[in-house]
Amino acid sequence: MSTPVTSKVREYMTASVVSVTEDTPLEEVAKTLLSLDVSCVLVTNAECSPVGVVSITDLARVSRMEGGPANPLKLMPPNRVAKEIMNTPILSVGEDASLSEAATKMLHNQVHRLFVSRGDRIVGVFSARDALRVAFFRHIETPLSAVMTKRVETVLLGDSIEDALAKLEETDRRGLVVVDGAFPVGIFTQMEAIRARALSAELRRNPVEEVMSYESATLDASTPLYRAAAQTIATRVRRILVVEGRKLVGIVSGYDLARTLV
Q1: What are the residue boundaries of the structural domains of the chain, listed by start?
Q2: What is 144-261's CATH superfamily?
Q3: Is 145 helix (H, G, I), strand (E, B) or coil?
Q4: Cα separation of 133 and 15, whole Å?
Q5: pTM of the predicted structure, to 2 decimals
Q6: Do 9-137 and 144-261 show the same overall fold?
Q7: How does strand 40-44 pair with strand 217-220?
Q8: pLDDT value of residue 24
Q9: H or E segment at 185?
Q10: Which of 104-137 are b and which e, b meaning 16 or more Cβ less than 10 Å from the residue's Cβ?
């Protein structure tokens, strides 16, 4: 059963928005993202009006710029604040827009979430996680193999943390899949990279296994989307690693799921 394109964004959006002020130190922004397990925050000015967005990827880019290979990384100088790295304009969609409109905008701008507006107010977020809920509630039976991204950047389980950091920067991806041979065992995302860059040079020579995240689902390529979505919603993972036998063949995120809503 396919998802009706007339379904409204407000039916599936997350009706809560995490925000910081434009003068919030970046160290505090990082703590907020890590403690609440969110990928971005809305930035507001003194009048509480939204003026921009800071994502975990933005913080990772700053940490690359500020870090040095020989010394432990100080994540952010305390005098830097949210407005210095925030993205503008805010990408948003009206709460009465269809899922198809929202998905098209996400794909066109290559983003994993849109803020949802009601007039001049931001009232929610429609994200990759929300796209998973659409797949589940609408019982979308399309197999993972039909929507997965086949090109996956990987790093070996025994490779060093330093090597993983270098590859993540070189490929400019949101994350790497950690493999044991050809089988996926974890992920190394910008979130892990931020923590890893705070380690000493000596510790960064340790295997990436020590800092990788296990927060992913590994499913067969034939698994229908609604079943995959149910598992990822229950475990709160953001990515589905797709296998055939014991071999990694693709990856699925909410961004890939957005293609099924257009």
Answers
A1: 9-137, 144-261
A2: CBS-domain (3.10.580.10)
A3: helix
A4: 14
A5: 0.77
A6: yes
A7: unpaired
A8: 95
A9: strand 183-189
A10: bbbeeeebbbbbbbeeeebbbbbbbbbbbbbbbb
Name the one residue in this structure whose structure tokens are 């996956």: 152
Q: How many CB atoms lie within 10 A of CB 94?
A: 15
In degrees and rounded to multiples of 5, residue 14 shows phi and psi of -90, 115
Q: Regarding the domain delimited by 9-137, which CATH topology (the fold level of the hierarchy) does it fall under?
A: CBS-domain (3.10.580)
The dihedral sign for the CA sequence 213, 216, 219, 221: negative
Give buried/exposed letters for 36-51 (b at 16+ CB in 10 A, else e): eebbbbbbbeeeeebb
Strand partners, 243: 220, 248
| C-alpha of 170 from chain center | 18
On the 0-12 / 13-18 / 19+ scale of CB atoms within 10 A, 258 is: buried
The pLDDT tens digits along the chain (262 residues) read 444 457 899 999 999 899 999 999 988 898 898 888 888 999 999 999 999 999 988 887 776 545 554 544 455 556 789 999 999 999 999 999 999 999 999 989 888 889 999 988 999 999 888 888 888 888 889 999 999 999 999 999 999 999 999 999 888 788 899 999 999 999 998 888 888 887 888 999 999 999 999 888 899 999 999 999 898 888 878 789 999 999 999 999 877 888 888 7
- AA identity, residue 255: Y
Residue 195 class from Cβ within 10 Å (0-12 exposed, 13-18 middle, 19+ buried)?
Answer: middle
